[in-house]
Specification:
Number of strands: 0
Largest sheet: none
Shape: elongated
Strand content: under 5%
Order of helices and strands: HHHHH
Low-confidence stretches: none
Number of domains: 1
Distance between the termini: 75 Å
Radius of gyration: 22 Å
Number of helices: 5
Length: 141
Amino acid sequence: MIDWKLLFSAHFWFSLQWNPLQPRTAILMVVFFVILIVLGIAMHLAPRYRKQQIDAPLAHALQRGGSVCATTGVFGLFFTFTAYEQAGILSARFWFLALLILFLGWGGWELWRAHILVPAEREAASMRERFMKYFPKGKRK
């Protein structure tokens, strides 16, 4: 049974004398981080294959969100490998805590951008289009 109080103690996260990573836990972590990498790649490539259904600001937001997932997944796999191999300071638990903070901060920023700035960019593009229809177009050769 998992002792949930242990997860909220500073000694658990910042101790340099840790228990080795169990194989079952390592497999679960690898599966989770591989899913993050695959999700990141899918989010990054989706705008290329669905150009008619996804406008430019949403495509940019999807690609940035894919970067968050893929980067977190790669670093997570690296730290899982070092924790499994017990490779000195790189296998400390505080790296996973730092990775969680990075994912939540960067992912939260990208979600804020997607929900606040993307509609504003769409509105600005439509206003610019309505404004530019009154100006003459340049000569075409």
